[in-house]
Amino acid sequence: MADLPPIWFDVAPDTDYYAALNVHRDASTEEIRRAFFVLSREFHPDKTTHTDDANQQYPQLDRAYKVLSSQPLRLAYDQYGERGVVALEEDKSADEWAVANYVHSDEYVQERVRVLMRRWYEKQLEAPFSSHTECEVEVDARDFVKHPLYSLQQVFNKQFRMIGISQMVMRQSTSIDVSRNTTVVVGGYLYDKHGLGLGALTCGINYITADPTALRIHLNSEVGWTPKLSVHLVCHHRMT
Predict the structure, then answer these.
(1) In the chain, N or C terminus with fewer CB closer than 10 Å?
(2) Residue 55 is inside which H or E element, if any?
(3) What is the CA radius of gyration of the chain?
(4) Does position 146 have pLDDT exceeding 90, yes or no?
(5) Residue pair 177/161 in contact by the 8 Å Cβ criterion
(6) CA torsion 16→22→26→32, rounded to 10°?
(7) Residue 80 neighbours by CB distance under 10 Å
(8) Tens digits of per-residue pLDDT, 184-216?
């Protein structure tokens, strides 16, 4: 499945569309249509002298009618509010959902919205985490460079290697945003040089604010053959 659209993470707070149209939650489609047309005559910007109020009220009325007059969107709204509606709108085009009024059952629509919302909750849980993987390989090709033709002959004859890996480092880290300014980084690394392998687990805390003149704190620890603990403080002062 494709990634969720960014709009999912910035949906406006829910508005009671039933209250906006002054209808009950079990109102029929015809009752919703009549209520919208009555209110639109009062609040449409082209039909009233109170343009400021109309500019604020009518878009909400229009949105409420669009959602409640569509059976799939209304089902999504009743289950999950505006976020469920946005999920369904982003999942299918308007024309496809117009056809869905006649093709898909209520159970299908409800299950589809349930799947989309589960994806959204999973994305919310994953949002504070970010992983980084890094691999460094150092190749020893001195013999190959000194005698390239002879080295190629040896390589083709598979007699011995003229190029070897002298050093390799693999690092993995995961960053977790625990607050607006604080990030915890946990990970580790594996180090191999000429067949000698080492490794360590690492953990760090970074405190950084948006103010460039504020104190920045980087606390790092390492647990391995030689445990380490380091603190890095950074503070920039403006010259006046």
Answers:
(1) C
(2) helix 51-68
(3) 31
(4) no
(5) no
(6) -110
(7) 19
(8) 889 988 888 766 778 888 888 888 877 767 778
Q: Assess whether pLDDT exceeds 90 at residue 31.
A: yes
Structure tokens at 23: 């209808």
Q: Report the amino acid identity of residue 15.
A: T
Per-residue pLDDT, 23: 94
Average pLDDT of span 55-66: 85
Ramachandran area for residue 158 (φ above 0: left; ψ -120 to 50: alpha; else beta) = left
pLDDT digits (tens, 9 = 90+) for 117-133: 887 777 777 767 788 88
Do 221 and 232 contact (CB within 8 A), yes or no?
no
Q: Is the four-CA dihedral 7, 8, 10, 13 of positive or negative sign? A: positive
CA separation for the pair 112, 182 (Å, rounded): 37
**DSSP for residue 6:** G
Structure token pair of residue 30: 């015809």
Q: What is the distance between the alpha carbons of residues 120 and 5, in angstroms, rounded to a whole number?
A: 10
**In whole angstroms, what is the distance from residue 204 CA to residue 198 CA?**
20
Number of Cα atoms under 13 Å in the Cβ half of residue 23: 23
d(CA 180, CA 209): 8
